[in-house]
Design brief:
- This protein is an all-beta fold.
- The protein has one domain: Jelly Rolls.
- About 0% of the residues lie in helices and about 55% in strands.
- Strands 1, 2, 3, 4, 5, 6 and 7 form a seven-stranded antiparallel beta sheet that branches.
- A hairpin with a 2-residue loop joins strand 2 and strand 3.
- The chain is globular and about 40 Å long.
- The relative contact order is 0.25.
- The model has no long low-confidence stretch (mean pLDDT about 95).
- This is DHCW motif cupin fold protein.
- InterPro entries: DHCW_cupin (IPR047713), RmlC_Cupin_sf (IPR011051).
Length: about 120
C-alpha cells in the first residue's frame, strides 16, 4: 500500500454508481487507492445483496439500519453508530436492508487473512 497524503473528501463531489441487488439497489461512491478502497454505500428499501461476499471489510453504519447475514445462518442487526469488522475469507456474508441504510465501508490489503503464528 502506498502512502496517502493528508486530504479531505467532499463526498458530494464523488460520483455514485448503481449496483443492482437480488432485490433493491445499492449506490456506491468510491475512492480507490493502492491497496485501499473507501466507499460510502447506500442501500435502498428492500435491498438484498445478490451474492455472498468473502471479502474483508470495516463497515460503519452512518444512517438507518441493516442486517448482516452470515452463510452459516447467523445474522447481526447493525444500526447508526455500529460497526463490524472481518478479514478476507473468514465469513460468507451479505447485507439486507428493510428500510434503507447509509454505510462507510473500508477494505483493502490490510484485511487479508493472515495465518496464525504458533507462539
Amino acid at each position: 500500500m502506498s502512502n496517502i497524503p493528508f486530504q479531505t473528501i467532499d463526498w458530494t463531489t464523488i460520483k455514485k454508481t448503481e449496483h443492482t441487488g437480488e432485490s433493491g439497489m445499492a449506490w456506491w461512491q468510491t475512492l480507490q487507492f493502492s491497496g485501499l478502497r473507501v466507499r460510502v454505500v447506500e442501500y435502498s428499501k428492500g435491498y438484498l445483496a445478490d451474492h455472498w461476499c468473502e471479502k474483508g471489510h470495516i463497515v460503519h453504519c452512518l444512517e438507518g439500519a441493516f442486517v448482516s447475514e452470515l452463510k452459516n445462518g447467523e445474522s447481526f442487526q447493525l444500526s447508526k453508530g455500529m460497526t463490524y469488522i472481518v478479514s478476507d475469507d473468514l465469513s460468507s456474508h451479505r447485507s439486507v436492508s428493510e428500510n434503507g441504510v447509509k454505510l462507510l465501508i473500508i477494505d483493502g490489503d490490510f484485511l487479508k487473512n493472515q495465518p496464525s503464528e504458533n507462539i
